[in-house]
Amino acid sequence: MAEPRFTRFAAIDWSGAQGHRHKGIAVAICETGDAAPRLVPPPGASAWSRDDVLDWLIDQDTPTLIGLDLSPAFPFVDLDGYFPGMPDSPPDARALWAMVDDASAADPHLAVANLLTNPELRRHFRQHRDCGDLFPGGAGRMRVCEHGQRAMGFSPTSCFNLVGAAQVGKSSLTGMRVLHRLAGRIPVWPFDPLPPEGPVIVEIYTTIAARAAGIRKGLSKMRDAGALDTALEALGSAPHDPLARYDDHTTDAILTAAWLRTAAHRPDLWTPSAMTPHIAQTEGWTFGVS
User: Fold this and answer.
1) Structural domain for 177, as ranges
2) CB within 10 Å: which end of the chain, N or C, has fewer?
3) Same domain for 197 and 261?
4) Distance (Å, rounded) from C-alpha 160 to C-alpha 280?
5) Is it true that the peptide bond before 190 is cis, omega within 30 degrees of 0?
6) Looking at the domain assignment, is residue 59 inside a domain?
7) Sheet (strand 26-31) strand order
8) How far is 54 from 50, CA to CA, in rounded Å?
9) Which of the 8 DSSP states describes residue 26?
10) Of the residues 181, 203, 227, which one is the last residue of a structural domain?
C-alpha cells in the first residue's frame, strides 16, 4: 500500500464477557489530520453491546480502517489444524467463524457459552477448573504472528486460554461470531485482500500502539488525561477532549485509533515477510507486526 487511502481510523476495544452490555467495549474514531480521536457513544444506552458494535460496523461505508482488539482465528500452522483429531475441524478461518457461530446459536448477545461445553472442543481449552487434556500447558499454542509479537518484546496470550485477566479466548470467540455475520459486508484483512476503496477491518493489539507512543513495557495503561495526552502527542495527535471516565478500555481505543492513522500508510505492515497465503487464510495477522 504505497499511498494512504483511508480518511477515517477507528479502534474497538472488545469484550468477551457474559451479559448484554459491557463497559469493557469502547469505540474511538478520528479522521486524517491531527485532531485527537473521540469516543463514539453507544446508541441509546450507557454501554455498548456486541450487537450494537455489529450494527455500527455494518453501517460503515466510508474508507475507514477499523481495528478490532481480538484474535480472529486460532493457531493452525503449528499442528496443521485448529483442533487436531477432532472430526470436521475447520480447514480455514471462515469455516471456523461459521462453526463458532453455529455452535453458539442458542447464546444471546453473541456469547459462546454453549460452544465451550462441547466435549470435543473443550479438550483444547484451558477454562476455570477445567483444563482440557489437549491444552499443551505453559503459555499454550500460539499463532505465527503471536511469535512475531514475542520477537518484538510483547507477551501475547494463547487464544485457547480462557482463564485470568489476560485471557483473550472469549474475546476472540465472540469476535468470530461478529466476523462471520459481516461476511460480504466489510473485508477483513488478510483473509480478504486489501480492496481499493471502502472500509477494512484489521486485528489490532493495543500494546503495539502504546509502545509506538513511547510507553515503556509494564506501563502500557493510561488512566488520566495527562498520560493520554502525552502518548497522543508522541503520535502527532492534538490533545483529546476530556472524558467522563478514564479506564484502560477508553484510553486504549483512543490511542490505538491515533496509531492506526500513523501506521496505515506503511507498506511493510500490509506485506509482513512471515505471512504466507496459507497463514493469511487460516491464522490471520496482527496489523503492526511486520
Assistant:
1) 93-181
2) N
3) yes
4) 19
5) yes
6) yes
7) 38-39, 26-31, 8-13, 64-68, 200-203
8) 6
9) E
10) 181
**Nine cell digits for residue 223:** 488512566
**37 close to 240: Cβ distance less than 8 angstroms:** yes
Contact (Cβ atoms closer than 8 angstroms) between residue 62 and residue 55: no
pLDDT digits (tens, 9 = 90+) for 57-69: 999 999 999 999 9
CB neighbourhood size of 181 (10 A): 16
CA–CA dist 209, 228 (Å, integer)? 12
Helices (H), 131-198: 144-151, 169-181
- C-alpha cell at position 103: 455452535
Are 112 and 100 in contact by the 8 Å Cβ rule? The answer is yes
Query: Counting beta carbons within 10 angstroms of the beta carbon of residue 254, is it exposed (0 to 12), middle (13 to 18) or buried (19 or more)?
Result: buried
In the chain, which residues have pLDDT < 50? 1-3
Q: In this structure, is residue 290 part of a structural domain? A: no
Report the distance separating Cα 190 and Cα 193, nearest Å: 6
3-state helix, strand, coil in the chain (%, to 5): 35, 10, 55
The values of phi and psi at residue 235, to 5°, are -100, 15
Q: In this structure, what are the phi and psi dihedrals at residue 186, rounded to the nearest 5 degrees?
A: -135, 130
- Whether the full predicted model's pTM is greater than 0.85, yes or no, is yes
- Give which of 188, 184, 157 is closest to 171, Cα–Cα: 157
Q: Are strands 64-68 and 200-203 parallel, antiparallel or unpaired?
A: parallel
Query: Which secondary structure element, helix H or strand E, spans residue 211, and what is its range?
Result: helix 206-212
